[in-house]
């Protein structure tokens, strides 16, 4: 295989060509926002078979120690867990692709599992101005009395379909968008973050 052909088939970050690590936007003072590119993480949709939600709940508790989140809720601890996505449907997340490879076999007959790792782009938004930044475009109320750690929303951000879940009260959020919308989403996100000054960093490789 030629070097040129090998490069064509090499894995490529969803953010390649858009995100540039480093400090951007307002240069005075500390950055108000940190954008961490979450390449390499695992994502999979889990859809319960008809009448199998209780069995799925028992299995994820016994096998992984997870709670099957109720609507609008997520349970993510140490980068692993489940995020509610729709009635009878959840997004499984983990820090490495290998961590979720067994799910189709484990959930066989109880839930359908579809790998989404390469179909979505995920960015972590944190820093003192993280909430203010997202409030510019997120179509849900992010005020702490309405949206706290352990909450999730399937919504739109500047007319782009997205799912976000809040990880802690700092606050820190993970946002997932379809990979095909990465460029448009990044354009909005960085323009909205510019007034606060923002740092772009690559997440830890696994």
From TrEMBL:
Keyword check for Repeat: no
Superkingdom, taxonomy of origin: Bacteria
Keywords assigned: Oxidoreductase
Record GO terms (molecular function): sarcosine oxidase activity
Oxidoreductase among keywords: yes
Membrane-spanning intervals of the chain: none
The enzyme's E.C. designation: 1.5.3.1
The protein's name: Sarcosine oxidase subunit gamma
Organism whose genome encodes this protein: Methylobacterium brachythecii
Lineage: Bacteria, Pseudomonadati, Pseudomonadota, Alphaproteobacteria, Hyphomicrobiales
């Amino acid at each position: 295989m030629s070097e040129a052909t090998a490069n064509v088939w090499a894995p490529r970050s969803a953010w390649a060509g858009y995100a540039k690590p480093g400090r951007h936007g307002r240069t005075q003072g500390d950055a108000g926002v940190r954008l961490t590119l979450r390449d390499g993480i695992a994502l999979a949709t889990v859809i319960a078979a008809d009448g199998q939600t209780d069995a799925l709940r028992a299995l994820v508790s016994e096998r992984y120690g997870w709670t099957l989140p109720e609507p609008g809720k997520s349970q993510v601890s140490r980068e692993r867990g489940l995020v509610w996505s729709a009635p009878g449907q959840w997004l499984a997340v983990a820090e490495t692709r290998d961590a979720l490879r067994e799910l189709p076999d484990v959930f066989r007959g109880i839930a359908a599992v579809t790998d989404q790792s390469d179909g979505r782009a995920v960015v972590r938004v944190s820093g003192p101005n993280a909430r203010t930044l997202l409030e510019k475009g997120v179509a849900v109320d992010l005020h702490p009395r309405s949206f706290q750690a352990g909450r999730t929303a399937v919504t739109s951000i500047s007319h782009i379909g997205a799912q976000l879940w809040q990880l802690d009260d700092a606050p820190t959020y993970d946002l997932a968008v379809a990979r095909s919308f990465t460029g448009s989403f990044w354009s909005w996100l960085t323009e909205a973050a510019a007034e606060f000054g923002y740092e772009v960093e690559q997440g830890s490789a696994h």
